[in-house]
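so my prof wants the structure for this chain in the tokens format not the other one, which i didnt know existed until like an hour ago. anyway here's the sequence
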Amino acid sequence: MGTYTYPRFAYRPTPDARRSTAAEHETVVVGAGPVGLAFALDLARRGRRVLLVDDDDTVSIGSRAICWSKRTLEIMDRLGLGERLLEKGVTWNVGRVFFRDREIYRFDLLPEPGHRMPAFVNLQQYYFEEYEVDAAEREPNLEIRWRTRVVGVEPADDGVRVALESPEGPYAVHARYLIACDGAKSPVRKMLGLEFRGQIFEDRFLITDVHMQADYPAERWFWFEPPFHSGQSALLHKQADNVWRIDLQLGWQADPEEEKKPERVVPRLRAMLGERPFEIEWVSVYTFQCRRLERFRHGRVIFAGDSAHQVSPFGARGGNGGIQDADNLAWKLALVLEGTAPESLLDSYDAERIPATDENILNSTRSTDFITPKGAGPRALRDAVLELSERFDFARRFVNSGRLSLPAVYDGSPLLTPDRDSFPAFMRPGSPAVDAPVARGGRRSWLLHALDGDFVVMHVPGAGEVEALRRAVADLPVPVRIFTAGVDRGRDLVDVEGLLTRRYDLAPGTTYLFRPDQHVAARWRRPDPDALRAAVLRAIGREDGR
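here's what i got, hopefully its the right format
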């Protein structure tokens, strides 16, 4: 590839390979892709030792996942990588939808100011992984073993025996927990005899990255039945280094191997791009799949990312959903490993991430059905919706060119304390925190920077309330930080633009409890020290108070 030089990561000899018995490790993560690296970084930054193994010695080949959502960027910002992703990636908020030879409407995914992160950043997966590896190599609690392949997995009640192949030969380690982030073809999943359930759609798309100079804006452009690709659909995205992602629908009868050949790819691109010079950097043919494991946790083996679920690429739900898996699991496993929370807390990973995955699968399935209608009737209905959407706002809600990734709200989670007071549904328990500009210590900052990995209380104070809340959480098994908030100077979080007050419907006495993954755990109109204490215990799976 002309625009990127792949790094090669050295294999470092390990004493584990020369032991006669399996070395003990607290957590072993399989797969150094975006999800495995994010999880390992998060767990290591929480003070836990992590071993990450990968059978390769470089980052992903081809740009693969490119659209990183606002929530993913916020998670990576907490892990110290947000600024680097923003600097290298292509920021976009606007999308355009075309039908045949005309634009029918455009949309803005983040029309309101006052957010640190944009709606999306486009950045090739190899850069994303490279930056994660750079951070991992600086993390003393994290060891990566490249060119190390998992060849056997033997779960037991006290952990997992993991058989490995490396340049030093075969050896084994024993892990208290094994986190499988080894992709859609997950060897760990196959070793355990687990199968995906779901749907494979009868359609194929050509996914091509081309390097070219073009003055197109940094927007998402989606065409239904464009003149340059008759009867099918197409998608265009800008990435870093003047690399452009082009997706072209092929149909189910297309031969994947034939369609990847230059003599097939180049004419299709010429029809779209004209005589503009370009260089092909990467080509793949994709078959839509919407599938998942029945359960993600299997005792001491836990699956995350593509090893646990697959969705179609339209909507950017695969990689972003996987990063949110890691975000959900890391803080819980850290608490279990340190003995602060019961092992049953890990069951909430399934309780929260399976509904989130089902939501992604539902949206992905609907997108696929709209983009690739089967039969004359569904196609006529889709085309009528597209025609109406050019003139009527109501019709645009039914156009589905890929419902773009949104963070999950964990409604119904056993870790949440339901509202007992009157609040808007927005920012209810289970919701991910929405950022807002604040001042901290006289300096401009952001709310999410205050919610940096611990339990946090945000409280609009009255007389004597803060000290009562502090006493209530002082002897809890997890640290809980308390921030006062409001427009008045002297608050820990000063609402400098009024957005914090509006987004959280703040009034005197309003109190929010945030989890370590920045999701709302509970909220009250009046501070209640006993209720706060109970909510923290519930959020770590210790609702019985023990």
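also thought this was worth mentioning. The mean pLDDT is 93.
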